[in-house]
Design goal:
Helix 5 links the parallel strand 4 and strand 5. Strands 1, 2, 3, 4, 5 and 6 form a 6-stranded parallel β-sheet that branches. The termini are close together. By secondary structure, this protein is α/β, with parallel strands linked by helices. The chain is globular, with a radius of gyration of 16 Å.
């Protein structure tokens, strides 16, 4: 059997009760047998990207840790909320930091996208923006199946934040299974 793939998740939300972070934390239990999923290092403390800071102080430790984790991973799953029809600024800032490093970590890295939102579209707009950003950083974006979780409050347990939508779970399993095949096809293990 092929080696187990190392995939990391990056949640785009910093909120304590985030549905996106809750979903990201549950992905390991739905991973195919040939994939291990763990959370990426925290990026919340990154300052707003500023080339002057980069040129005088270098890269913050959180940016370096995130970049190292992305480089070491066989694939990345970004689970992102949609803020004002778009990409959350904090995670975009983290991507801005790591994208400026030598050996840019997203280059040729398989990336899958998921989004969770309270409305019926499930973050559909944000995924297309993430695809544009991933094109620029030369990531290899896994296209289908797409995972959009809409009407989130009705699909997560109110107290535990466990994702309880069986149809959604099956769809996520399909995506992760397809992502495993995609990573292997792109040269991962």
């Amino acid at each position: 059997m092929a080696d187990k793939l190392n995939v990391i998740t990056i949640s785009g939300s910093l909120r304590k009760g985030s549905y996106n972070s809750a979903l990201a934390s549950q992905l390991p239990k739905w991973a195919p047998e040939g994939m291990s999923i763990t959370a990426a290092p925290a990026w919340a403390d990154l300052p707003v990207y500023n080339a002057d800071v980069q040129n005088t102080s270098g890269f913050p430790a959180a940016a370096t840790a995130l970049a190292d984790a992305i480089r070491a991973a066989d694939g990345v799953v970004i689970v992102s909320p949609e803020y004002n029809y778009g990409v959350p600024g904090g995670l975009k800032n983290a991507v801005d930091w790591v994208s400026r490093m030598k050996d840019q970590p997203f280059k040729d890295k398989p990336v899958a996208l998921q989004s969770v939102a309270g409305g019926p579209l499930g973050g559909g707009r944000v995924q297309y923006q993430w695809r544009q950003i991933m094109v620029f950083v030369e990531a290899l974006v896994f296209l289908r199946p797409e995972v959009f979780v809409g009407m989130a409050p009705q699909k997560f347990d109110e107290k535990t934040l466990e994702f309880k939508d069986e149809a959604g779970i099956n769809f996520i399993k399909q995506q992760l299974g397809g992502f495993e095949k995609f990573i292997r096809k792109m040269g991962g293990k």
